[in-house]
Structure formats: C-alpha cells, structure tokens
Specification:
Elements lengths: L13 E6 L11 H14 L2 E8 L3 E8 L5 H15 L2 H13 L15 E4 L3 H17 L14 H6 L18
Antiparallel strand pairs: 1-3, 1-4, 2-3
Length: 177
C-alpha cells in the first residue's frame, strides 16, 4: 500500500467504504449524529451524495465531488464531526482500547484511519456499486429484504422509480458465505 496513489479526476464519482475501529457497531445507535456529520460536510464542500447505506460498523457511499481533490477532506470532515459529537464515555472507552492496540493509526479509536476508495469509470461500474450499496444490509444478514433496511438511500430511489420496492429480496432461508 506504500505506493498507492489516489485518482483525482473532476466529473467522476467515487465509491467509498468507511469502517469503524475494530468494527464497533456504533453507527446506527448514533445515526442522528452521523446524519448531522454529513449535513455539516455538505455545508462546507460541494458534492452530490449519490447513494449511501449505513450499517452498524461501516458505511458505503458514492459521492461526486465538484472538486475531486476535496474527497479526502469530505471524508475526514464527516469522520471528525461524528467523533466530536459522540458521547464522552464512548470516546473514552475507544481511546482506552486504542491505547492497548498495537496500531496507533486508527482515528482516535473510533474510525479506521484508512478507507476504501474506487473511482467509478463508467455507467456499468456505477450501477454495480449502486446496487452493491443497496443490497449490503441483506448481504450482511441484517434484513432479508432490501426494503426493510431504513438506513439506505434505496427508499429514495424507489420513490424516484429507479428500483421496485421488492428489488433484491430473497427467501429468508438463504445462507451467505
């Protein structure tokens, strides 16, 4: 990863996966704070949030920044805003866990310091990532029907007619590897 270089191309969309430290399941319990963190970042940076899904310990999103070089700042702003608004006891326990950790790279014990980023290259690539985001709660067995997960932009796109409300639904007996 030492030679990894991010691609910064204006007029492109980017897919991200952002994970909490040690996959702490704190995002849904603090969903209002996370929403406010997004709102604050949107007030500071120009970007479109194309799709998002929030799971207990990570989230996926596609965003299209007006200025490509801003996307690391956007993500950092979201992570910092969330961190600053957290309950003091949660921050304290996260810092204690971090002090016992061998790696000091985590973002104050709440976030992993790195995140996954993928530059979306074309419409097909966009659709694959878009569907992946919306199907993710089923993949992680949080729900058996995509429509049952509240913390997703899926519902917005059902209203817009991009998805049928039954899209991605499977029998509850399906097992995932």
């Amino acid at each position: 990863m030492a030679n990894y270089k991010r691609i910064f191309e204006d007029n492109y969309s980017y897919f991200f996966t952002i994970v909490t430290h040690n996959r702490m399941p704190i995002l849904i319990d603090n969903i209002d704070l996370l929403r406010e963190s997004f709102r604050l970042s949107k007030s500071k940076y120009a970007y479109e949030l194309e799709a998002v899904v929030i799971l207990p310990d990570h989230f996926h999103m596609i965003l299209t920044p007006k200025i490509a070089r801003d996307y690391p700042k956007i993500i950092s702003h979201i992570k910092r805003s969330f961190l600053y608004g957290l309950d003091k006891n949660l921050k304290k326990s996260a810092k204690t866990a971090l002090s016992r950790s061998k790696s000091k790279r985590e973002h104050s014990g709440i976030w992993q310091s790195r995140y996954y980023e993928h530059t979306i290259r074309d419409e097909k690539d966009f659709k694959i990532r878009f569907d992946y985001i919306h199907f993710n709660p089923v993949k992680h067995q949080l729900v058996s029907k995509v429509n049952d997960w509240s913390y997703s932009s899926f519902h917005k796109y059902v209203k817009m007619g991009w998805y049928d409300s039954a899209w991605g639904n499977f029998d509850e007996n399906i097992e995932f590897e």
